[in-house]
Amino acid sequence: MDEEKDLAQRKKEAAERAKQLARERLAAKQAAEQAKSAAGQGGAPDSDLKTPSDSSTRPVKEESGAAQPASPADLEAAKKRAAEEARAKAAELRRQREAAASGGATGDDLEAAKKKAAEEARAKAAELRRQREAAASGGATGDDLEAAKKKAAEAARAKAAELRRQREAAASGGAAEEDLELAKKKAAAAAKAKAAALAKQKAAEAAGSDDELAKQKAAAAAKAKAAAAAKARAAAMAKQQGDAADDDAAKQKAAAAAKAKAAAAARAKAKAAGADGGTEQPSSPSPNDPLLQKYVRVIQEHLGPDVLEDAYINRLAKDVPTLVVNKEAYYKVAEFLKYNEQLWFDYLSELHGTDFQTHMEVYVHLYSYPNRQPVALKVKIERDNPEIDSLVPLWPGANWPECEAYDLLGIRFRGHPNLIRIFLGEQWVGHPLRKDYEPYDAEV
Questions:
Q1: Contact residues for 322 (Cβ-Cβ < 8 A; gap 6+)
Q2: pTM listed for this prediction
């Protein structure tokens, strides 16, 4: 499409040039006619007066090339030449585009040639710039150039002198050749002497290397024997230590069994002492006794005396008042502790479960920011079917702790919005915090 446009443009330019030539011919003809009419009216022209042909036709002829306007045959030939040139340029443009479109090595070579030409142009421009700057700077630059010229001249003179000496030596012949032959013989003798010395040195090194190899073998054998002896001693010591470790392990197991028995006896004693409905209390009163009495009184007044199984001061947990509630009244008591105006426990700080082998417990720690008072709530549930109401509707902070108790102990919380295993995943077998837990994979 571009080639057709280029051809049409060239035809158009050729037509414009033909029109221009025709206009120039017409102007010249009109000027000649005017000159003839003026000559016929006024007779012979005055020598001082210029005719129209002298004044008006000469510029026209000069503008048209100082020759007669082109004939129709010339105009047609000019059009043909212009058309041929246009077709040749269009063909060349087509070949260039085909070469560029074909890709491959041709496109790469063209691109590389363009880059190389651009780099050479930049290099030449930079060199020309440096030369101009050097010529403009003068001073030290001119001195450096002069010094470089002198150095080059001296090097050339030195080379010429060396060449002259070589030629003189070659021309002298005679004694010089004898000296050269003698020098060659001396060099050959020195080379033989060096070769003999090197052979002696290698022989000595070979003899010494055999002795060194024997020494290394003996040292390696001694090291191997020493390592074997050390391993035997280490094995004997390990055996002794293993026997001692087994004895220590047996002693530790016996001590642990004794401690477990003592703890069980202490729990049994404490349970017997608290059979009357309360745990064994120390002789000194707790500063939180009034709070415990207040909680028990308010709960029994509103919910009845049967909702609480026990109430005591936990001396091992900063004397926090602790309430043990029935499983059926767990949620009702928790709701009362939050919304009662005298109690108002608005914050749940802790919730966890415990496996006592005979049963399980859920422990909840609450705090009242308006009254700045704490309380602990406990509930006992069956171990075979550990299930209790969820406290998430009352305290949203119980969400993750209840999921943790479900994951590690298997306690299910009714009414929980999304009870999932948050540590081990739903595919895990068993609950690791149960006392009778056995790993599904013995290697884990």
A1: 310, 311, 312, 313, 314, 375, 376, 377, 378
A2: 0.40
